[in-house]
Amino acid sequence: ISWARRSEQDVSAEAEPKARELGDVRQPVGRTEPALETFEQHDDQAASEKGMRAVEQDHVDVQCVLAAFDDPRSDRQRQQRTGRVNKTSGSLNTDPDDHDPASSLVPPDIRVLVGDGRAAAHPGRLSADDVLVVRDLVCAADDVSLYARIVGELRAARAAGATECAWASWKDGCHLISRAPDASPTYLAVLRRVKEYFGIVDDGSAYVRFNWYADGADWKPLHHDTAAFSQRRSGKQNITVAVSLGGEREAVFRSCQHGTRAYLPQPNGAAYSFGNGINVNWKHGINALAPDRQAGHMGRISIIVWGFSTCGDAGHDEDSELIPAPSAFQQPCLQFQRGHCTYGERCKFL
C-alpha cells in the first residue's frame, strides 16, 4: 500500500513539469488532497528502519510465492497443455479445434490496447492490427476548457480578419473542418502533445485535419483513410491518431470481411490510434446520435493526425491493393485543375 501511494506522488511530481511545458494542455496528475502517511514521512529513525524492514519482508514474501510450486495437476495434464487435447466427451460450448493451443497463436482481426495518458510517450510497440486507446491524454474528461479555448481562438482569429479560419462543410455536410487551425495556440499545443506521445516523426510527411462536430446532429460516415489505397501515402504513414475534445462521441470500426462492428466511446481529452492493417481491413467513422439525444450536445473537436510513428510497424500492406480507390483518386483534384494546389511539391499529380 505504501508503495502504491508513493508511486502516485511520484507520478504527480513527474506530471507537473510536463503540464507547464505543454502550456496547461495537460493538468498535473495525482492526488490533490494530502497524501496518507507513508514510511518516508516518519521523522523517527527507529520507525523508519522498522518500516524498511517491513518492505524488505514483503519483498521476501513475494519471492517465496514466486518460487513455490503447488500446481495440483499431474505431469500428464501439464504435458497436454503443449499439444492438442483429445476431447472424447461431448462439449456444447467448445469446438474440438479450439482445444489445440496452436489455435490461439494467430494474428488478431483487431487488438485493443490501453495506454497511459500520464506518460510522456507510449512505451511499447504497435502492430498494424492494434488500436490504442488513451484516456486523459491532453486533459481530464470533466475539463472541457480546451474545447472552449480552441473554438474561441479560431472565432477570434476570424473576427480579426483571418478569413482562412472560416469553417468549411465536409463529407457532404456531415460536419465542419477548419483549414487553418494553426491560428489557435491551444490547438498547436495539443498537436505537439499528440506527436510526442505517439512518436510521430515531424519531417513534413504528417497530415493533420481539424474536424468540428458543431452539435449533436453532426457525424462521420464509415470510410478508409487515403493510405489504404494510396501506395504513396502508405509508404509514409503507418498510423492514424484521433484526439477528442468536447462532448463524448462513439468511434465505430466495421470489418470489411465480416461486417462486425466495434464501438469505442471517445470522452473529452481521450485519443485513439490504429495501424495500416486496421485501416485496410476495417472502415471507421463516428456514429450518429439518435434524434432524441442530439439536443443539448455541446459539440466535439477531433484532431486527426496521419503520419509515421516510431512505435508502429513499417512497410506497405499488400492487402491494401485489394481495395478499389474511389473514382476521385483517378483524376486530378479540383485545386490542381484550377492551378492553385496547396500541396506544392507534395502534390501527387506533379
UniProtKB/TrEMBL annotation:
A zinc finger (C3H1-type) spans 327-350. Residues 1-24, 39-53 have a biased composition (Basic and acidic residues). Residues 327-350 form the C3H1-type domain. Keywords: Metal-binding, Zinc, Zinc-finger. PROSITE patterns: ZF_C3H1. SUPFAM superfamilies: Clavaminate synthase-like (SSF51197). Gene3D superfamilies: Alpha-ketoglutarate-dependent dioxygenase AlkB-like (2.60.120.590). One of its GO terms (molecular function) is zinc ion binding. Pfam families: zf-CCCH. This is C3H1-type domain-containing protein. Residues 82-94 have a biased composition (Polar residues). It comes from the Eukaryota. InterPro entries: AlkB-like_sf, Znf_CCCH. Residues 1-53, 71-107 are annotated as: Disordered. It comes from Zooxanthella nutricula. PANTHER family: FE2OG DIOXYGENASE DOMAIN-CONTAINING PROTEIN, OXOGLUTARATE/IRON-DEPENDENT DIOXYGENASE.
